[in-house]
Design brief:
By secondary structure, the protein is of the alpha/beta class. The protein is built from 5 helices and 11 strands; from the N terminus they run ββαβαβαβββββαβαβ.
Amino acid sequence: MRGWKIWFTKGRRRCRTERSLLMAKSAPAARPRFFVYGSVEELAMAENLVIVESPAKARTIKKYLGSGFEVLASYGHVRDLVPKEGAVDPDDGFAMQYRLIERNEKHVAAISKALKKSTGLYLATDPDREGEAIAWHLHEILRQRGELKGKDVH
């Protein structure tokens, strides 16, 4: 199926060969908005995962990105320091011990499941210290689980 172009116009999906697409005489309103090159099988695997902080942001951003992106929310912080004694080890260079927050375990599991089907990961948290901390913790969790191998992380 190489050599096919998939083009989108007004919510409908059409497949045409490159030659017939170039030779088509259509009105400007019916011309494709953008092109995606490659085979249909490659496009099915070209799913990108975007992680944001809140579910409201996820719904809004999903409207803009379209079908090539899956947008999920982390629902805030996903890890915290181990409570009481032993959270920080001063003898080991002040290494910190983290654990998943119970209420967010199901959200991290959903992110892991969606990441297995995707080829790229976009950590799109807020551009503040809290957002950077959430993105860092998610990246570390997924890296420790070995789920980022072969994935593009942005």
